[in-house]
Amino acid sequence: MTSQPTVKTLLILGASGDLTGRLLLPGLARLVARGRAAGLRLVGAGSDPWTPEQWRERVHASFEAAAASAGPEGKEALQSLEKETVYHQLDVTAEGALASLLGTLDGPTAVYFALPPRISQLACESLRPEQVPPGTRLVMEKPFGSSEESARSLNQTLVRLVPEDHVHRVDHFLGKATVLNILGLRFANNFLEPVWDRHHVEKVEIIFDEDLALEGRARYYDGAGALRDMIQSHLLQIMALLAIEPPATIGERDLRDAISAVLRASSVPVPYAASTRRARYTAGQAGGKDVPDYAREEGVDAGRGTETLAEIQVNIDNWRWNGVPFILRSGKALGAKRKEAVVTFRPVPHLPRGFTGVDSPNKLRIGFGPDTLRFDVDVNGPGNIFSLSRATLETELSGSDLLPYGEVLEGVLAGDPLLSVRGDTAEECWRIVEPVLKAWQQDAVPLEEYDAGSAGPAAWPTAVPRD
Ligand code: NDP
């Protein structure tokens, strides 16, 4: 499904920033090159005194990869967007500055806040509702607030300016293909639904391990850590999709209502020393590189005790999932990349006597990027058919031809908030993890260590590499 923009102008605040250059503009370029952003105007803004040429050069550099693989029409579309793009120098926090710029743009406009979170908040607070032209969309990056209360306060600021369905809280993990693949698997197959509950599922693990270490991102990461960076946002969203009740439609209202309901039923059980773990890496080799001790990485404040690996158990207290642990784990500088959800089913109630060999639980593994599906089953072995052996049914799921930020932007430009995090959901995600963060700050859970390049602390059950 491709959609053409209803938005006429994309205004990127934070034109010189890392997100804009590395992710947003390349994502936009793919969209443009595929003819999926016809008629769009691009406007950059930032505090640097750039000339229009300097901005165009930046856009050109970020468009290059997409242009190289584009056909003649795609190249022409990219060149035309580059030629017409304009740049405005402004301090977005200055009284009236953003409002004046909004008043000059050809709307409807999508305002992308590619700014430090505090600056985004000040910029929104500087606007009055009557200064925001009708149809404007506000696109907010993560982290969305730093606590339940701050997320609520930011939500109140935003919905004073535009309706909730015109606010796009970006979670680039929620790429359309991945989301739709989970929903398709769950709700377009009759065999799965009867076993998708506490009677048949023993546990669900959602793992996002990276082999990369800090990669120079201490300024952001050391203040965040693995729990805030990955679990509070992305992994809770994936958990919700795996756990939701069947929605009547996959329209934004039905789907986001279902997500919200699941998150409202979710919490991390106490004591946190039993339901959560945290660790940080020491020197080693990961991702093909020598990695220093995290505490010695440039820009890290070792005394902060930031975790680079986090794991929490979430319980969903409703009829379907009561008693089934959802384990969410993410970390850096690990031995292997692993991005998947693993649903482990309960053992058969009785294995007929006479069978020998493996009797291991069925596992359904949903891989993210590339999206794959693997199903581990026990079958009769070759030769001696009484001896069970493990077979894996595996298939690759359809992906997207856009980069993750291309998918994000396509939704924004089409005015479709389906893949954006709704305001109440953003607050719920903080409500779930905030008590854990507080307990960790008070050292109620020890900060363990693992060698960079290992599978994590050996005693962690999820440290077992994928089998
Ligand atoms: P950067 O620090 O690289 O860029 C921030 C931008 O904001 C700069 O262009 C800066 O311009 C501009 N800026 C700061 N203050 C003002 C102001 N008062 N008026 C106008 N412009 C201003 O940050 P990132 O690009 O890394 O991050 C931006 C947002 O995206 C953050 O919320 C971050 O959490 C989020 N994010 C970033 C990711 C990434 O990989 N970078 C990934 C996911 C989310 P100048 O330097 O000229 O002041």
TrEMBL record:
<keyword id="KW-0521">NADP</keyword>
<protein>
    <recommendedName>
        <fullName>Glucose-6-phosphate 1-dehydrogenase</fullName>
        <ecNumber>1.1.1.49</ecNumber>
    </recommendedName>
</protein>
<dbReference type="InterPro" id="IPR022674">
    <property type="entry name" value="G6P_DH_NAD-bd"/>
</dbReference>
<comment type="pathway">
    <text>Carbohydrate degradation; pentose phosphate pathway; D-ribulose 5-phosphate from D-glucose 6-phosphate (oxidative stage): step 1/3.</text>
</comment>
<comment type="function">
    <text>Catalyzes the oxidation of glucose 6-phosphate to 6-phosphogluconolactone.</text>
</comment>
<keyword id="KW-0560">Oxidoreductase</keyword>
<feature type="binding site">
    <location>
        <position position="176"/>
    </location>
    <ligand>
        <name>substrate</name>
    </ligand>
</feature>
<feature type="binding site">
    <location>
        <begin position="91"/>
        <end position="92"/>
    </location>
    <ligand>
        <name>NADP(+)</name>
    </ligand>
</feature>
<feature type="binding site">
    <location>
        <position position="142"/>
    </location>
    <ligand>
        <name>NADP(+)</name>
    </ligand>
</feature>
<dbReference type="Pfam" id="PF02781">
    <property type="entry name" value="G6PD_C"/>
</dbReference>
<dbReference type="InterPro" id="IPR036291">
    <property type="entry name" value="NAD(P)-bd_dom_sf"/>
</dbReference>
<feature type="domain" description="Glucose-6-phosphate dehydrogenase NAD-binding">
    <location>
        <begin position="12"/>
        <end position="181"/>
    </location>
</feature>
<feature type="binding site">
    <location>
        <position position="337"/>
    </location>
    <ligand>
        <name>substrate</name>
    </ligand>
</feature>
<keyword id="KW-0119">Carbohydrate metabolism</keyword>
<comment type="similarity">
    <text>Belongs to the glucose-6-phosphate dehydrogenase family.</text>
</comment>
<feature type="binding site">
    <location>
        <position position="47"/>
    </location>
    <ligand>
        <name>NADP(+)</name>
    </ligand>
</feature>
<feature type="domain" description="Glucose-6-phosphate dehydrogenase C-terminal">
    <location>
        <begin position="185"/>
        <end position="460"/>
    </location>
</feature>
<feature type="binding site">
    <location>
        <position position="332"/>
    </location>
    <ligand>
        <name>substrate</name>
    </ligand>
</feature>
<dbReference type="GO" id="GO:0004345">
    <property type="term" value="F:glucose-6-phosphate dehydrogenase activity"/>
</dbReference>
<feature type="binding site">
    <location>
        <position position="229"/>
    </location>
    <ligand>
        <name>substrate</name>
    </ligand>
</feature>
<dbReference type="InterPro" id="IPR001282">
    <property type="entry name" value="G6P_DH"/>
</dbReference>
<dbReference type="InterPro" id="IPR022675">
    <property type="entry name" value="G6P_DH_C"/>
</dbReference>
<feature type="active site" description="Proton acceptor">
    <location>
        <position position="234"/>
    </location>
</feature>
<dbReference type="Pfam" id="PF00479">
    <property type="entry name" value="G6PD_N"/>
</dbReference>
<feature type="binding site">
    <location>
        <position position="210"/>
    </location>
    <ligand>
        <name>substrate</name>
    </ligand>
</feature>
<feature type="binding site">
    <location>
        <position position="172"/>
    </location>
    <ligand>
        <name>substrate</name>
    </ligand>
</feature>
<keyword id="KW-0313">Glucose metabolism</keyword>
